[in-house]
Write a structure and sequence with these properties.
Blueprint: H1 3-29, H2 32-37, E1 39-46, E2 54-56, H3 57-67, E3 71-74, E4 77-88, E5 91-108, E6 120-133, E7 136-150
Parallel strand pairs: 1-7
Antiparallel strand pairs: 1-2, 3-5, 4-5, 5-6, 6-7
Length: 161
């Protein structure tokens, strides 16, 4: 590899990482316009392993907005990011796949008391498929592979806030 190619690869890795971080921030902050903006025009997301839906980014954003309204606090921690670049139309580096583990503590809205501890925690792995576009790197696919979930303890009931 030449130094120019190596530098381009490093810059792509930073850009891809920025999209993954942007994803977590958009979901945690409930910024659904930003969430939709991370996707390529035909981008899709699959949350079925976590009890959700699969669909295009607009459809999934609407579902997330409704479903996550139960939680006053959300905090995605996306770690162990493994990035691999692929080939599209004979051009190396037009696609990327990121496999990353996550842990996601959430706090139900409307809970009484001073505790800010999470009421529900889940974890698993994301598979992000990305595509280089004229606007930069965008998600063409997000697949959630939930591996575990700790539900509220006895006496804790989810309430809408």
């Amino acid at each position: 590899m030449t130094q120019r190619v190596e530098l381009a690869t490093v810059l792509d890795r930073f850009s891809v990482d920025e999209v993954v971080t942007g994803y977590a921030v958009a979901v945690d902050d409930g910024d659904w316009d930003a969430y939709r903006g991370l996707f390529a025009p035909k981008g899709r997301a699959d949350y079925r392993s976590a009890g959700g839906i699969e669909g295009d980014s607009a459809e999934v954003a609407r579902w997330l907005e409704e479903s996550l309204a139960l939680f006053a606090m959300r905090q995605h921690l996306i770690v162990n990011r493994r990035v691999r670049f692929g080939v599209l139309e004979q051009d190396i580096g037009d696609t990327a796949e990121v496999r990353a583990d996550y842990i996601n503590p959430m706090r139900f809205a409307g809970q009484d008391g001073d505790s800010t501890a999470p009421d529900l925690v889940c974890g698993g792995r994301y598979v992000f498929g990305l595509l280089r576009t004229d606007e930069g790197w965008r998600l063409r696919q997000v697949v959630v592979q939930e591996k575990w979930r700790r539900m509220p303890g006895p006496g804790q009931q989810p309430t809408a806030g």
